[in-house]
Design goal:
By secondary structure, the protein is of the alpha+beta class. It has seven helices and seven strands, in the order ααβαββαββααββα. β6 and β7 form a beta hairpin. α2 packs across α6, α3 crosses α4 and α4 runs antiparallel to α6. The termini are far apart.
């Protein structure tokens, strides 16, 4: 069995477990929200429910990574400006951190066809790892450039136009014995780490027809490179019109789900909270 086949088999298993677990979490999450509605916000019970809600949000984020890693996480692509996505995601993730970011973006970066949510998760996972590698703060350098790959190249991608994203930190680096395992699912050297950040990122990049690699030496930081195929399509800007303004009214909501707990929770929520549609 090849490495790709092993990865796909593990992805199918992870996806099945994550899907069932996510359904259970959804029922718990929904009932906690319903319970909060009947509590005074200043009460101790409300604080406990809020703490439980926040813990479930973190658990759902983990199942989302598992689902993305699995076959069920096929990308839904749109033509996007990858530089805007990278800058926004990186800046957002470093809010409140000692780490700062420097951007080096070549002019006229080609558009790419990506699932914006999944690609944001890729950048998010890499930036978080870079930030954690510098507990006392430091600089993360993010570079974006256009790259053309010819017929004769050792690079593991077909010839064509690509956008390359390079993310470099000043952290402690990765030991040589671990560098070949960083993309393995559940491999981590961090206390409390899930070991899914980089394996999920790799899975997403491969599904976009791209390539991801890591270079690192102990004491010299880490460089992560991502190459994504450039798009031949233009980015279409959506102009908001009067017809797109939010409408209000009254009506009925049909709730359907194959999980009785989820449909029951959703129906109860709709019965307790009545808002304009």
């Amino acid at each position: 069995m090849t490495e790709r086949q092993k990865l796909e088999s593990l992805g199918l298993l992870a996806g099945g477990i994550a899907h069932d677990f996510n359904n259970i979490l959804t029922v718990i999450f929904g009932n906690i929200i319903l319970a909060k509605l009947s509590q005074d916000e200043k009460s101790g019970s409300y604080e406990k429910l809020l703490e439980a809600e926040q813990s479930i949000v973190r658990a759902k984020e983990l199942t989302h990574q598992l689902l993305t890693f699995s076959k069920g996480g096929a990308p839904v692509n749109e033509t996007a400006d990858i530089s805007d996505l990278v800058v926004y995601t990186t800046t957002f993730m470093l809010r409140g951190s000692r780490t700062r970011c420097e951007f080096i973006i070549s002019p006229d970066i080609w558009p790419v066809d990506v699932d914006v949510g999944q690609m944001s998760q890729v950048i998010n996972n890499i930036v978080i790892n870079a930030d954690h590698a510098m507990p006392d703060g430091g600089v993360i350098r993010v570079a974006l450039e256009n790259k053309e790959i010819g017929q004769e190249t050792a690079f593991p991608l077909g010839p064509g136009k690509y956008v390359r994203i390079s993310i470099t930190d000043e952290g402690e680096g990765i030991p040589k014995e671990n560098i070949t395992r960083v993309f393995d699912p559940y491999f981590t050297t961090k206390a409390g780490g899930s070991g899914l950040d980089l394996s999920t990122a790799r899975s997403i990049v491969l599904r976009h027809g791209g390539h991801i690699s890591i270079e690192s030496e102990v004491g010299s930081g880490t460089l992560v490179r991502i190459c994504l195929p450039a798009s031949t399509r233009k980015i279409v800007s959506v102009v908001k019109s009067e017809s797109m303004e939010q409408s209000y009214g009254v009506g009925r909501v049909l709730v359907m789900d194959d999980e009785e707990g989820i449909s029951g929770t959703a129906s109860t929520w709709h019965g307790m909270v009545k808002r304009p549609l």
